[in-house]
From TrEMBL:
Entry's EC annotation: 5.3.1.24
InterPro entries from the UniProt entry: Aldolase_TIM, PRAI_dom, RibuloseP-bd_barrel, TrpF_fam
Similarity remark: Belongs to the TrpF family.
Full protein name: N-(5'-phosphoribosyl)anthranilate isomerase
Pathway membership, UniProt: Amino-acid biosynthesis; L-tryptophan biosynthesis; L-tryptophan from chorismate: step 3/5
Alphabetical UniProt keywords: Amino-acid biosynthesis, Aromatic amino acid biosynthesis, Isomerase, Tryptophan biosynthesis
Residue stretches making up the N-(5'phosphoribosyl) anthranilate isomerase (PRAI) domain: 3-193
PANTHER family the UniProt entry points to: N-(5'-PHOSPHORIBOSYL)ANTHRANILATE ISOMERASE (PTHR42894:SF1)
Length: 199
């Protein structure tokens, strides 16, 4: 199970996620209480080992903005939330980085990974980063084909059941490993990794 810990903003967050065995760490470069600027993201990325994917998270900013921020931050993958057309993924393909299409599961019913040129599909709650769970069992009958991440309201207590219900390739979490919005808890990060990896 591939596990991404998102919304990191301090060196301690990064150290906790890496020590706990995260496969990817996310830095929010869009409007959010967890937002970091590309310069801080670059400093945090420098402390991440090569085998852990570093991901910059955006909403519907223009491709030029995304390209400049990704290059300034030095991340190795791009996550776009919202309702992007296939052209948005084509426009960023020259970055040569994995592109993650993050969308609400309700809007992407029947979607498969790669439909719009993405490398990885992420199915989320309607409001990204809000920590709101949704009915993952909806996906049980027909989960997307290909590599896809489950997100939205996951935490150490529910991630095992969510994985059993939806059979994702990976999971992504932000709010569920925080003591309060924007403040990560190393113990929750460790508990989330343990629960997800043993599911
Ligand atoms: O975390 C944020 O603040 C955020 C802001 C804007 C877009 C995406 C964001 N995070 C992503 O939201 C989901 C789930 O978050 P949560 O666990 O429900 O809080 C995840 O994909 C994050 O990468």
């Amino acid at each position: 199970m591939f596990v991404k810990i998102c919304g990191l903003s301090t060196a301690a967050d990064v150290a906790a996620a890496v020590a706990a065995g995260a496969d990817a760490v996310g830095f929010v470069l869009t409007e959010s209480p967890r937002r970091v600027d590309p310069g801080l993201a670059r400093d945090l990325v420098a402390a991440v080992p090569e085998n852990v994917l570093t991901v910059a998270v955006f909403r519907e900013e223009p491709a030029e903005y995304v390209r400049a921020a990704v290059q300034a931050a030095g991340v190795r993958a791009v996550q776009l939330h919202g309702n992007h057309p296939a052209a948005a993924f084509a426009e960023l393909s020259d970055l040569g980085l994995p592109l993650i299409r993050a969308t609400s599961a309700a809007k992407a019913a029947g979607a498969d990974c790669g439909d719009l040129g993405e490398d990885l599909l992420l199915l989320d709650a309607p409001v990204p980063g809000a920590g709101e769970p949704w009915d993952w069992t909806e996906l049980g009958a027909k989960p997307p084909a290909g590599k896809w991440l489950l997100a939205g309201g996951l935490n150490p207590a529910n991630v095992g059941a969510a994985i059993a219900a939806a059979s994702p390739w990976g999971v992504d979490v932000s709010s569920g490993v925080e003591v309060r919005r924007g403040v990560k808890d190393p113990a929750l990060i460790t508990a989330f990794l343990r629960a997800a990896k043993s599911a």
